[in-house]
Design a protein that fits this description.
Chain lengths: 66, 569
């Protein structure tokens, strides 16, 4: 097993068999990670409007493929 | 000891991209025809010509082999909706790029490991991105080409991200033509339940399916039947296309050829993935399942009572609560069914039976198990970094939180859903998140960069790429996965030289590199490759060397431990 896969699977304390709360201690989630995630997404949200999105979707029609 | 009926689980991908032009005020209607051709024009590949060649017709008969030919270059190359048009093979990594029904299609070179697949798929996207940059420079100021690595336009049109897996001919025939039950239905059960880690996710529904806010799989709405040869309409869970791409079959008995020994399972079911772990698990777990099917060791109880209903309901169950019935009467969630497959695969691995067939089987199992356990615990936050649909769902929910005036059906959400898969880092959400370190890597940056310019070393892709380099554009008349045709000295069709690469796990770097190094010129190179049995002539029914000799120990050390050649010679 490669070192990176071994590490990533050992650092998470996962209880099996029952739904877990995403905020439960021991999971890999951190506020910092969520902040980074949404900071990236927010940049995209800011550029969107109903008009620009409709224009994008109108242009994006594709031929059906395989 | 390797499994006697199993062959190495070689992987290839052929993935259609969404492509269109935005910002062109004069454009009316669809722009995918123009966008795809502008993109292909910026791809450097062989052969270098852009007109159909008489004698080769897509979806027809390849006159040189008698095989049904879906894959020859320029076949069906006329008209606005041409299928398989302008195919260019890359002398860099041995893959190819072409246009299929107005989509730029990326076909990876053949690889042996899931890790290499993830690396080479990412490399192919980078090649497409370079073409996009060059095409947009040419197009400006008349708009900008957008390229999406996804599977539908959210307007009822789907396009596929397919994978191919090498199987033994006997196992493929058994599964598709003879007994069918149970192995075929176990395969369906695996595919359907595996959407929990292979879905890219999408807002809404398409193709006349009932409305939904968000679903796991992009392809589920377009999968309408269990089994079929079709790929463009009435798409099946399991595609029965029988096209091995392994050269000729034996005509009158004699030593079996690769075309007799091998089959190719063409999987059209899956979503295109961008998350490295999802890509890795999609192909890696399929390698494990197919090996167990080949060995006749799949639990026959793992068959869904209604696979299509299960697919459509599980796709609409992002909280992973819905249980579907097996034929046995037992009811399981998709994750619980995956855990059943995992349990069997772990036993198989304990017995050492993936050895020589699936590279890095233990690593695949470890990551598969860890991911399933987290799914079972609904540990969604920790899975954002691995699974596309979970990340996309989180982004959409965040957008809705920040914009109370938006809904799941707002154009802004659909737009967000689409640009998740943009291959342009200036707007591609996946790429932005990946650059911020929010996705777990599989292949290293060095491995990905390698496959932008170099072929895999453990398959025939290495010799294909090197032959294309050595021949150069003036000599190459036609290329397909299992052959290269060189122009005659007169330039006419008669007198062409055909080089055959029938064994997909043959003609590796290990076989060919010494011959390339020693050859003084192109003629002596071809003669050396012929003498060594690395390439064959059309009338020459010798098979290439044993598979064992073809495995490269540098990149696939696990495979080198095995008596692989015994498994299929």
């Amino acid at each position: 097993m490669s070192k990176d896969i071994k590490q990533r699977t050992e650092t998470d304390d996962i209880k099996t068999g029952a739904p877990a709360d995403d905020a439960a201690p021991g999971l890999t989630d951190t506020r910092t990670e969520m902040d980074r995630l949404f900071a990236v997404a927010a940049k995209s949200f800011e550029t969107m409007s109903a008009g620009s999105s409709q224009e994008f979707l109108k242009s994006s029609r594709q031929t059906g493929g395989q | 000891m390797s499994e006697p009926n199993c062959v190495p689980k070689l992987i290839g991908g052929d993935v259609e991209l969404g492509n269109f032009i935005v910002g062109n005020r004069e454009a009316s209607g669809k722009t995918d025809y123009k966008a795809s051709r502008l993109l292909l024009g910026k791809i450097d590949g062989l052969p270098r010509r852009l007109v159909p060649t008489p004698g080769y017709w897509g979806n027809g008969l390849d006159v040189s082999t008698g095989w049904q030919n879906y894959g020859s270059d320029y076949g069906g190359g006329y008209g606005l909706h041409s299928q398989d048009w302008g195919r260019k093979y890359l002398d860099t990594n041995g893959g190819c790029i072409y246009i299929d029904l107005n989509h730029l299609e990326l076909a990876t070179p053949e690889v042996l490991s899931a890790r290499d697949y993830q690396a080479v798929w990412t490399a192919m996207l980078r090649i497409a991105r370079a073409a996009q940059v060059a095409a947009n420079e040419e197009l400006a100021p008349d708009g900008r080409i957008v390229v999406l690595a996804n599977n539908s336009d959210r307007q009822n049109n789907s396009y596929g991200g397919h994978q191919s897996f090498l199987m033994s001919r006997s196992a493929w025939d058994d599964m598709m033509r003879q007994r069918m039950v149970p192995s075929l239905f176990c395969l369906m059960a695996h595919q359907v339940s595996s959407i929990v880690y292979t879905g890219q996710g999408k807002c809404g529904s398409e193709n006349g399916r009932p409305n939904v806010a968000f679903q796991i799989s992009q392809r589920a709405d377009f999968i309408e039947t269990l089994l079929s040869e079709n790929t463009t309409v009435n798409r099946p869970l399991v595609n029965t296309r029988d096209e091995p791409l392994c050269g000729q079959k034996t005509w009158y008995g004699g030593t079996p050829l690769p075309g007799d020994r091998y089959a190719r399972l063409h999987v059209i079911f899956y979503d295109t993935n961008l998350a490295p772990v999802a890509t890795y698990l999609k192909v890696g777990v399929m390698q494990l399942i197919l090996t167990m099917i080949e060995a006749g060791c799949i639990d026959h109880n793992l068959v869904l009572e209604n696979p299509l209903d299960a697919l459509h309901l599980w796709s609409r169950d992002p909280d992973l609560n819905v249980r579907m019935a097996l034929l046995s009467g037992q009811k399981l969630t998709a994750v619980e069914l995956q855990l059943k497959f995992l349990e069997q695969a772990k036993v198989f691995e304990t017995q050492g039976r993936f050895a020589g067939v699936v590279a890095d089987a233990q690593e695949i199992l470890t990551l598969w198990e860890d991911t399933l356990l987290k799914l079972h615990s609904r540990a969604f936050v920790s899975l954002r970094s691995r699974i596309d649909w979970i990340m996309k769902r989180a982004l959409c929910e965040q957008a809705l939180d920040e914009h109370p005036d938006w809904s799941w059906r707002s154009p802004e959400l659909t737009h967000l859903d689409q640009i998740y898969a943009s291959i342009d880092p200036s707007d591609g959400l996946f790429l932005s998140l990946d650059a911020a370190g929010l996705f777990e890597p599989v292949a290293t940056e060095a491995e990905i960069a390698h496959f932008v310019s170099e072929p895999p070393v453990s398959t025939r892709a290495w010799t294909r790429a090197m032959l294309l380099r050595a021949a150069g554009p003036d000599r190459v008349a036609h290329v397909d996965w299992d052959k290269i045709e060189l122009k005659s000295t007169s330039g006419g069709y008669l007198g062409r030289t055909q080089i055959r690469l029938p064994d997909p796990i043959g003609a590796t770097r290990l076989d060919s590199e010494p011959i390339f190094s020693e050859a003084d010129d192109f003629s002596s190179l071809l003669e050396g490759l012929r003498r060594a049995g690395v390439i064959t002539e059309p009338q020459d029914h010798r098979s290439t060397g044993s598979a064992l000799s073809l495995i490269d120990s540098y990149r696939n050390p696990q495979l080198n431990q095995l008596t692989l050649g015994d498994s299929h010679e």
